[in-house]
Structure formats: structure tokens, C-alpha cells
Prior knowledge:
The protein is an alpha/beta fold. Helices cover 39% and strands 26% of the residues.
Amino acid sequence: xxxxxxxxxxxxxxxxxxxxxxxxxxxxxxxxxxxxxxxxxxxxxxxxxxxxxxxxxxxxxxxxxxxxxxxxxxxxxxxxxxxxxxxxxxxxxxxxxxxxxxxxxxxxxxxxxxxxxxxxxxxxxxxxxxxxxxxxxxxxxxxxxxxxxxxxxxxxxx
Length: 158
């Protein structure tokens, strides 16, 4: 099985969600099913069917998270040598050479990506173009809106 890169924070978020599902959500839905069963005829009991459906979603999400965690390779970028190279987990400051706009992205695993929070997936076009490059390099990124040139202004191991 291929290992999936994940940051320490990403792993912690998944473990927290798994704990919430197992210790809070699962018991809550089990109680809801038991309560709905007490109401009698299950064929016409909407509460029962809704609770069973919710149970299916919870169990599916638990399996999904456990699978992701078992296949994960947690990378703590703070423990890696600072070489100035763009690698998984670093925070990269970029200068758009056309607009002089500065942006900062952290390169994370696919499940952790959130562009509004400044986290981009390691498989995104920007991250793929940046990986292996160094501070000061100019990188051409192919985007749906056309090619964009960025200069790597900084690489931080946060």
C-alpha cells in the first residue's frame, strides 16, 4: 500500500475526529436507534431509519479515517534540516512576478488542503511545480487561467 504524506497537525485533526466519532457520535446514534425501536413498528418509523442512516455514515467515516491513518506517513518538517528547498510540509512565500502580489502556502497532504487557510495539497499544480526548487528560484505554474510565474521568496519549516 502506498504511504500517504501527512503533517503532524493533519494527523492530529484526523485522530481528534476519530475520537469524537467513536466516543460521542457513535454512542449517540446507538441510543437514538434504541429509542426509536421502543416506538414500535420499524417499517414506518422515520426516526429509526434516519438513525440507521446516520449510523452508516458514522461507521463509514470511522473506517475511512482508520484507513487513512494506517496508510499515512507523518512528516514533521520541523525535524528536517533547513536547506531552503521546497519539500512537503514547508511554508512557501511566493511573489507573483506579473502582479507583484505575495501569497503564502503550506504544502500539506490531500486531506489537509484548504486554500482559504493557505494550505495546498502536495498534488496541486502549484505544489508540484514548487517541490525541489529553492528560495530565489522562479517557477512557472500552469493554471486554468494561464501560466503564472512566481519567485520563491521564502521557505519556512514551521
